Amino acid sequence: MKNNPIVIADVQRLSSDQVRLSWRTDPEGQTVKIYIGSSPANSLTDKTFVTSTTENQVDLACDNHSRQYFVLEVAGNTYVTAERVLPLEGAHNFRDVGGYLAENNRRVKWGLLYRSDHLHNLTDKDVEYLRSAHFHSIVDYRNEKEYGKQPNRIWDNQLKTFNVIPDASSAELAAKAGNDNEKIMELINLSQNKDNNVRIDGSGYIMQEQNRDFVRNPETAEVYRELIDIILDNQNMPMVQHCRGGKDRTGFGIAIILAILGVNHQSILDDYAMTGTLRHARNMRRMGEYKKETDNLDVLAFLYSMMETRNSYLEAAFDEMTKLYGSINGYIEKALKVTPLEKEKIRALYLD
């Protein structure tokens, strides 16, 4: 595929009615025409011309009531981009995984594959916005107890929900407590019981082991094979997948998809790490609440490690794939049983 003179583009929201669109061209200083529309297609036929410039950024009027996509055109070459993080009030980790560079200079299509934290606190304004993105399905990784505590707010009665439930020890540990005090008392008891296998400290060991277990456990492979079957059917798209925080179970599922699409290793890690940035304020608030319940430093360090998004957590899964199957691709082929034809179909569906 020929190189696009637009090397990279990004959209950042400045306010409720304005975004900043920035880009880099090679060579620099070329005239860039900018179009906007509600379709993620890399096409100008359904877009409205906004402006043209030789600069490398422009601030544009764009409200936060509906999903919008931007197409940049340079000398007949087009490049589509959008806000990665959706401007929602009740979900802070809802984002599009489009735009990542894959093999052969192709990019993941925008507007099809999304990831999020739970959807329980969506507001009326969020519902309006999400309707504009025309979702067809939700993949919910949470178990029945988690869902019972925080059921999703469904914004369209036609949405199909797939309950894809991997075994997740950290989720079980968090879900079984009725409140913060119960959770902390349970952790203190675990820390004092030298016969148990749970390390109550800030090492992140339990999160690394959970990600390794995602790979080791044959039943978990069957669960994530369900995800593969879901994305093989483009009638399920656009789709959002989520767990409680959108970090581990969702992070593992998205990492598998991006690996199949040929996205490079560092971009997969960067996408995973973005959860830590988006949930930082929430995590700090939760730590303040935990500190009101205990001054046990090991318990507090453990709780923080559970909320953190360390690259080492996802890397533990990748290491286990290499250990057991020779490579990440070996895991995809042998454990998830993704055939070459299926991989080619997935790439045809989700890469420009």
TrEMBL record:
Listed GO MF terms: protein tyrosine phosphatase activity
InterPro entries registered for this protein in UniProt: Prot-tyrosine_phosphatase-like, PTP_cat, Tyr/Ser_Pase_IphP-type, Tyr_Pase_dom
Top-rank taxon: Bacteria
The family this protein is said to belong to: Belongs to the protein-tyrosine phosphatase family.
Domain (Tyrosine-protein phosphatase) ranges: 1-310
Short name of one Pfam family: Y_phosphatase3
Record protein name field: Tyrosine-protein phosphatase
Naturally occurring in which organism (per UniProt): Zophobihabitans entericus
Domain Tyrosine specific protein phosphatases intervals: 225-282
PROSITE patterns: TYR_PHOSPHATASE_2, TYR_PHOSPHATASE_PTP
Matching SUPFAM superfamilies: (Phosphotyrosine protein) phosphatases II
